[in-house]
Amino acid sequence: MSGRPNIVLVHGAWADGSSWSAVIERLQAESFQVTAPQFALGPLADDVARLRDVLRRQAGPTIVVGHSYGGQIMTALGDDAPNVAGLVYVAAFGLDAGESIGDLLAQGPPSPALANLAVDDKGYAWLPEDDFVGHFAADVDPVRARVMHAVQQPIALAALGEAIDVAAWRTHPSWYLVAQHDEAIPADAERQFAARMGATTVEVPSSHVPMVSRPDDVTALVVRAAEALAATVSRWPADTEPPPRGTDQTRRC
């Protein structure tokens, strides 16, 4: 397929770039150029700046794929997102202007995966091992899940209270993967994010980390987005406007 976009993968809280390993292998096998940078998960502006730095390194149009809090990072790119051709949300926050994750989480009791956050003296929140293995990554082999817990990247609790100014999904075509058994972000909230952004949507029976437990499904959605954009991005210079947003199509896997 000519004119295919680059792929940048954005990890979320309590994860790192290695969480995308199985998806990276599959995308590379399809000859995509893939980058999965590490994010400090401190102030939101710093993580957005990091993403912008990575995007500037891409030679041409790029699809940004965000998991969990990674969705907040890529959404905060707003309408000034050079090289971005489309957005793929994987069990991710897809908030709008003026909204924060903290406000959303405060609307109900803590989800099982987030009920017992341990906040250190620097203000960073960590997931206990039992909650990580039993809820956050519930459909991952426990041996693998414990390794993921050991390398978790904590997030600054203050970052959850930060709101964005402009949502990138308002000016970029979007795709969304709903994790039906998510115990961190409720599946119904994910469906609401996807519906509001008019995203092409699929649903899979996974925990909060489908890129680990169901990498084939995640890869398929990214490839689907790339195929939809291929004819457009091949003639879309990086300094022009992205293609129009798509329409909502839901498929359950």
Descriptive report:
The protein has 253 residues and is α/β, with parallel strands linked by helices. The protein has one domain: Alpha/Beta hydrolase fold, catalytic domain (Rossmann fold), CATH 3.40.50. It is built from nine helices and ten strands. The strands form two sheets. Strands 2-1-3-4-8-9-10 form a seven-stranded parallel beta sheet, sandwiched between helices. The protein has a three-stranded antiparallel beta sheet with strand order 5-6-7, with no helix packed on it. Helix 1 crosses helix 9. It is globular and about 45 Å long. It starts with 5 loop residues before the first strand and ends with a strand. The C terminus is likely disordered.
**CATH fold node name:** Rossmann fold
Supply the CATH class: Alpha Beta
Overall mean pLDDT stands at 91
Distance between the termini: 25 Å
Order of helices and strands: EHEHEHEHEEHHEEHEHHE
Q: Can you name the CATH architecture?
A: 3-Layer(aba) Sandwich
Radius of gyration: 17 Å
The outline comes out as: globular
- Count of the separate structural domains: 1
The portion of residues forming beta strands comes to 15-25%
DSSP helical segment count: 9
Structural class: alpha/beta
Major beta sheet, strand line-up: 2-1-3-4-8-9-10
How many DSSP-defined strands?
Answer: 10
CATH superfamily annotation? Alpha/Beta hydrolase fold, catalytic domain
Point out poorly predicted stretches.
Answer: 235-253
